[in-house]
Structures are given as C-alpha cells and as structure tokens.
Amino acid sequence: MIRFDNVVKRFGDNTVLDGFTCRMAPGEFVTLIGPSGSGKTTILRLVMTLERVTDGLIEIDGSPLSHMHRGGKLVPADEKHLAGVRTRIGMVFQQFNLFPNMTVLRNITEAPVRVLGLTPAEADERARDLLDLVGLADKADEHPSRLSGGQQQRVAIARALAMRPDVLLLDEVTSALDPELVAGVLGLLGHIADTTDITFLCVTHEMGFARDVSDRVLMFDHGRVIEDAPPERLFTDPREERTREFLQAVVGRT
Ligand SMILES: Nc1ncnc2c1ncn2[C@@H]1O[C@H](COP(=O)(O)OP(=O)(O)OP(=O)(O)O)[C@@H](O)[C@H]1O
C-alpha cells in the first residue's frame, strides 16, 4: 500500500503539487494523466526519493519514504534509510538506461547480487526466469546495443522485476520506441500487472494503454487531482470540463 498524505512539493515559489492525497493498494495499477507540467513526473521522483516532499508524507506499507522514526520523532531520512527504501521500488524509464558494457544477463543480475546479496547462481536463475517471461531467453549473452529498442525495454523491465519490488514506476516507457514495438511492451506490462501484487504507478500519454490496463486513472491539473476514476468511467464520461478538454486534445475522443 502506498499512501500519499497531503503531499506538497514546491520548487522555489512554483507549487508543483498542492496537497496530493491518495492510497494505492497492492496489485493496483494507477495511471497519472494530465497536461505537461501538471506534476506527474514529480510524483514518481518523490516516490523514487530523488526529490523530497516540501510538506506532507508518503508511506509504503506504513513506513515513511522521505522521513524515518528516530527517538520517537519523525525526522528527515538519511541516505542509508533512503537506500533501503529504494530497493523496494522499481522504475522503468523512457530511456532504458541499461549498462552498455554488461551482457543482458549481467544487467539483470547486477543489483540483486550487489544490493540484495543473492549469490551469482541465485541471481542467474532469477534472471533467466525473467528473460523467459519477457521473451528474451536467447539474448542472455548479448550486449544491449545488439537489441532493438523494444527488446532493450523488455530487459529494463526484467531488471526492475529482478529486485522483486513492491512498487513499479513507469515513466513514459514507450516514448522512445518505434510505433510497431509499442504494443508488445505494453502487452507485457499488462500481463505482469495482472499476475503480480506489485503496485504500478504509471505516467503515460498512451491513452489506449491507460484505458486497457489501469484500475484507476488520476487526472492532474495544476498540481491537483481533479478526477480519480476507473478508466471505463473517466475516458467515456469525464465529470470535469478540464478532463474532457484534455482528452479531446490528446485522443480526440469523449
Ligand atoms: N528539479 C526541478 N527544479 C525546478 N522545477 C522543477 C523541477 N522538476 C520539475 N519542476 C517543475 O515542476 C513542474 C511539474 O513538472 P513535472 O515534470 O512533474 O510535470 P509533468 O506533469 O510530468 O509534465 P510532462 O507531461 O511534460 O512530463 C514543471 O513546472 C517543472 O518545470
């Protein structure tokens, strides 16, 4: 369970998030939509602890992300605490960010060995199972540059899953892909979402994907959630004029 409690984020006098409150259950797939600059990526960066909240609290399973308990008080978290928190959160980016000098297999085993302390044999077994899942069992010994964008993104997904995260953040995961590769990556993510207890938090401009895969869609505008609804409702019967305008601009529907 992720809990956002009245989260405020300011950069200087720019209030990017203005009191974001939300609970996301295990296994839930939540997609954030909204105009450019409305604060969606900032939420992912806060969960990833790359940014700190200005005010409010984010918790995963009752443990605060950017703060920790010390001497009966809640104080800002130190690097050690943040490093522990980050092991529970996976992220897949627009740019795949694979290590170019490592094989596909090593890309996937590196963090489980280094961070979780798995033996190389355990990590290899986990990685090979994941390569099966993402349809790249035959690419284990290749280097990323030999793979297509879609294949690289599948490796990035396998690498994130290898850490067995509680939360998986997806930031425009198909933006850098050729159009014919998009459906395969999105289909894979939909399958993983359906078959695991991971909480997905997704920022996308792919409204078709948001509609097919999400349990909930949150519409952001100026740092606030103006609608929070299942996709079948939000995309067909938006309650807010601003949502209607946004969807018309993005997909020409409603
Ligand atoms: N590190 C930063 N320093 C200053 N301002 C920032 C920083 N990061 C984000 N912002 C500002 O926060 C606002 C929200 O940015 P954010 O990236 O969260 O929007 P977004 O909804 O994800 O937009 P997009 O759809 O274009 O990715 C923008 O005005 C942006 O300029």
Automatic annotation (TrEMBL):
The keyword S-adenosyl-L-methionine does not apply. Keywords: Amino-acid transport, ATP-binding, Cell membrane, Membrane, Nucleotide-binding, Transport. InterPro entries: AAA+_ATPase, ABC_ATPase_HisP-typ, ABC_transporter-like_ATP-bd, ABC_transporter-like_CS, Ectoine_EhuA, MetN_ABC_transporter-like, P-loop_NTPase. It is a peripheral membrane protein. It is found in: Cell membrane. It comes from the Bacteria. GO terms for molecular function: ATP binding. Residues 2-247 form the ABC transporter domain. The keyword Cell membrane applies. Belongs to the ABC transporter superfamily. This is Ectoine/hydroxyectoine ABC transporter ATP-binding protein EhuA. It comes from Actinokineospora xionganensis. The lineage of its organism: Bacteria, Bacillati, Actinomycetota, Actinomycetes, Pseudonocardiales.
